[in-house]
Amino acid sequence: MFNDQKVSFSGVQPSGNLTIGNYLGALRNFSHYSEAYKCFYCVVDEHAITVRQNPADLRRRTYETLALYIACGLDPNKNTLYVQSHVHEHAELAWILDCFTMFGELSRMTQFKDKSAKHADNVNAGLFTYPTLMAADILLYQTDVVPVGIDQKQHVELTRDIANRFNQLYPDTFTVPEPVVSSTGMKIMSLAEPTKKMSKSDENVNAVVYILDDKDTIIRKFKRAVTDSDTEVRYADEKPGIQNLINIYSCFTGKKIPEIEQEFRGVGYGEFKLAVGEACSQALEGVQNAFKELMSDKKQLEDLMKKGSEEASWYARRTLGKVRKKLGFIQL
Ligand code: AQP
């Protein structure tokens, strides 16, 4: 909370091309707060380097992610949109919070376990302390709500623990944030392995539908989605592929699960998959058109990055100043 106004904060890493998982689990929900909350939405490029990135790709994706924020409905005049590395207070507060985070807590983070297994040749300290940088991102803005997909809930819960620990020693420093996980789209699964989360860094491009995929590609990917040997479109745990497709269809059409089961009763998987692909590509068309226009003017995107980072820095400086004072650092 800043000056009696509630705050929403979230971010997306430019670590790959954004997926419909990122869109349905996070991005699409950001704009729900634009009217009533002070909103900070950040392209978290510093998080992305916990895994090796090609510099040219990282740069391009940083522009693209900012453009997608706007294309997905975030008005830069109503939301503070910026790039994490442009606001140095994030990294500075992260170091301080490292000193208030326990080794055991970080060791228990599911994402650390998954990513260190996936990148066994590069289990760097940044991968391990990623959640304290995320805590710094959130706590710098006195955040009340953090809209995220379910995979990030554990990190927001750790952020709450860190904030409470700090507040106990130094009262009234941080607002303790709440994770907000939307009831639909909280975890979109891979089309190739439907028991695994859809991820932008998945090497199998057919497992992932990107927000910017064209209609034919989207339909082809859904047609090839792994399902089961049954033919019934039914929402059941033993049918993870179909369950995932029903979820996706529900997110894009707003239809409820029983209604979808009814709509596709007696119809084969082929027809259902085609309908999912069409609903998805139709819903993304407007986002894709807006994205193309935004990307045609890089100078405008840079101006927006500058405006956003100046706004964010003002708030970040206030919180960091308070933290430094409470800790006993000398103010010159
Ligand atoms: N499959 C998903 N379903 C629902 N929500 C998802 N999110 C990610 N994947 C899904 C949500 O998107 C937001 C941004 O995610 P991130 O960029 O911070 O990193 P992530 O959670 O690690 O996402 P990815 O796509 O899996 O990236 P990589 O492959 O780089 O690790 C978050 O709110 C996240 O919950």
Explain the overall architecture.
The chain has 332 residues and is mostly helical. The chain has 2 domains: 7-181 and 298-327, 3-Layer(aba) Sandwich (Rossmann fold), CATH 3.40.50.620; 205-291, Tyrosyl-Transfer RNA Synthetase (Orthogonal Bundle), CATH 1.10.240. The chain is built from 13 helices and 5 strands. A 3-stranded parallel beta sheet has the order 1-2-3. A two-stranded parallel sheet has the order 4-5. Strand 1 (7-12), helix 1 and strand 2 (38-43) form a beta-alpha-beta unit. It is globular, with a radius of gyration of 21 Å. Bound molecules: adenosine-5'-tetraphosphate. Adenosine-5'-tetraphosphate is lined by residues 12-13, 15-16, 19, 21-22, 24-26, 148-149, 151-152, 185-188, 197-201. Adenosine-5'-tetraphosphate binds at residues 12-13, 15-16, 19, 21-22, 24-26, 148-149, 151-152, 185-188, 197-201.
Estimated helix fraction: 40-55%
Query: What is the H/E order?
Result: EHEHHEHHHHEHEHHHHH
CATH class of the largest domain: Alpha Beta
- Predict the CATH topology of the largest domain: Rossmann fold
